[in-house]
Amino acid sequence: MPKIWEPGRAESILQRLESLRADTKPQWGKFTSDAMLFHCTAGIRMALGELEVLPKISLLAAWPVKKLVIYVMPFPKNAPTAPELLPVSPVEFGKAKREFLETMDRLRAAGQDPEFRWAPHAAFGRLTPDDWGTLMHKHIDYHWKQFGL
């Protein structure tokens, strides 16, 4: 599975982002494009330790399940998410896009730093840098597909 900081991966994500507009409709789910960008940014901030997300007791933290979900299984559509990763008020599209781009830069830098200390995931618990890189790529790609990007 690809990691977000592998050569060309982030560039592909950013290139696909260029076709997202404020009025782009999702192919499934309830997110607006700005709320989806907020959500993806919040997920990255959680990984970087910039956003505290309360841990959830979950079978997803068990070793074989965690690896299956991150590396093998597709994300289910309309899966529940931590409330901390959802906007509580409307988000302006341009601001959400700028914040996503800035946060992606920090994620890419962290992925290149072998000393970076990754935060635990709310459902999966402690993850390796490879786990985080794969999960971030998979998560963002999932939402890009949600919006036809």
Provide a short characterization of the protein structure.
The model has no long low-confidence stretch (mean pLDDT 90).
Q: What attributes characterize this protein structure?
A:
globular, 48% helix, 149 residues, mainly alpha
Give the % helix. Answer: 40-55%
Query: Main β-sheet, in a few words?
Result: none
Number of strands: 0
Distance, first to last CA:
19 Å
Radius of gyration over C-alpha positions, nearest whole angstrom: 14 Å
Report the uncertain regions: none
Structure description:
The model has no long low-confidence stretch (mean pLDDT 90). The protein has one domain (31-146). It has helices at residues 9-17, 33-48, 63-71, 93-111, 129-146. The protein has five helices and no strands. The protein has 149 residues and is mainly α. 48% of the residues lie in helices and 0% in strands.
